[in-house]
Amino acid sequence: MFETIQKLAPDPILGLTAAYEQDSNPRKIDLGAGVYKDESGVTPIFEAVKMAEDLWHQRENSKVYIAQAGYPECNSAMLAHMFGAEHPALKAGRLRSVLTPGGCGAVRLGAELINRARPGGTIWVSSPTWANHVPLLSNAGLKIREYPYYDGKSHAIDFEAMLAALEKVPAEDAVLLHGCCHNPTGADLSREQWDAVTETAVRRGFLPFIDVAYHGLGDGLDEDAYGPRHMAEKVNELVVAYSCSKNFGLYRERAGAVMVMGRDATAADAGLSHLVNIARGIYSMAPAHGAAIVKLILNDPALYQVWVNELNAMRERINRLRALLADTLARKNAPVDFSFIRQQRGLFSLLGLDKAQVQRLREEFSIYMVDSSRVNIAGISPKNVDYLADSIIAVL
Ligand SMILES: Cc1ncc(COP(=O)(O)O)c(C=O)c1O
Q: Cβ(287) to ligand 1 under 6 A?
């Protein structure tokens, strides 16, 4: 059976982590994989998560399957959390949520749903986008096309080009947008830009599909939800993929949700019925543990407050590190203006280095980042920032 199967190259990002771990240089810095890390390089468990797990350990009395769409109290809390409890689409009964194995599970299920409605249809993704969007969307059967997004020269969104491309997207296509903390560029749409994209979506009739993987890690929970909330007020149909990996620190528990908004409650129910049917044919039932933790945190005001405080501290640290790197590079007279790092949001920025420069940083300075020069800001610290800035300047 498997004689024709050839060994594949390892995943480039996971290979980078392995190379970092083997490096014996005490000054080595890991800016590769996209996970949050604290000052000591550890990806911590949220205190709110530990408290919820203690509660859950006492309360859980069975391991029997949960409902096909997941815990109803988790789904309703997540919809209110994403869109706001008073959102008109929520009040009109037009939104449904299905718990998924992480944000990837949500992106895949959303893509499968689009493929059910329009087999072999087209989805437009930003150039660049997170590398894993490509297999998640295309393995569902969708064709992928790109719209211009980030201009590497100005280190900012080329909004004019983006909008001009969206103006030509046919009504039967879908368009993938990043809710906040764009991966890999860190360049997010402003409110005015969200408004303009929404207006184009309404006029052209394409389906917006918003990937929300860093809710609360950009400017705040409400601020980061502006795009999905505004779009859900204006468009007829919407899909959101939500990940609880980063903002709840639940990575390995695989917690996330795919949310679908229909024209009315009947259409939303039809979408829901297909989502659970698709899941049944892939992995059948959603993992329960991470979703149970999210359910407890979102439904208990005291736990919620503990979680929000931790999330805020995390976001503030990321933004402090952004400023620290930009300032350190400027103070050391870097020949390139890196002030864009301070303005961008989330875990990532693209330094704008070429492959050879990235390779030199790895080989000569033991600084590890993805070939595109995407850096994980959480890997920076006041202790390593001078060495990092000196090394970047050395390869420029
Ligand atoms: C843009 C984007 N979407 C979705 C995800 C989903 O991640 P997970 O499946 O671990 O929740 C990630 C994680 O890195 C991401 O960066």
A: no
